[in-house]
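Z., the sequence and structure:
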Amino acid sequence: MNKILAQCPLFYGLSPEETENIFEGIFFKTKEFKVGEIIAYQDEKVENLMIILEGTARGEMVDFSGKTIVIEEIESPRPLAPAFIFGKNNLFPVNIVAQTDTKVLKIPKPEFVKMMQKCDRLLTNFMNNVSGRAQFLSQKLKFLSFNSIKGKFAFYILNLAKSNNTNNIILPLSQSQLADLFGVTRPSLGRAIRELHNGNIIRADAKSIQILNRSELYELMK
């Protein structure tokens, strides 16, 4: 288990031996879920830090029409809703469903507090993880203000170009990650990028993007 946790964002920089020491005297358990089983229900209180040790889960919610919307896919070894373990309204924001046969590590909240008190690095990693998630959601809110996928992508690459003072940029995220950030599907994003490329507004080659027509990109943001 320690070798798996070494790849988890919460345990970055810790050796398997250090991780083993952190778990010494700590109560925890693992639970296995079959494909399609509910790992946690929306609005259920978050009593444990949960980390996927094996398999893949997805966060999903049901809209008012009864349609199921997949919000995010979570792969091993990532924590489930770490930002909601503390705070007044610490409820799962979505249903967490096993997408494959999945094994989950469950650490009760008081035990996790003990672990962070034992290890400054774990505490720092946890704070960075929660802060990074908050920053991701803040960015996502910005993109929701644009009506079109092309407008979202234009805003994104223009900001990258401004930060690097160049028209030639390398996308730091994959198309799947960008689609998640924009709140759209990956095929729809891919199609929008191809149309911008074919329209000679940008030149796209995998993650390499060259801006050819800035004025057209600004128009897409209106």
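Residues 2-141 form a domain with the Jelly Rolls fold (CATH 2.60.120.10). The chain has a mean pLDDT of 89.

Let me know what you think.
H.
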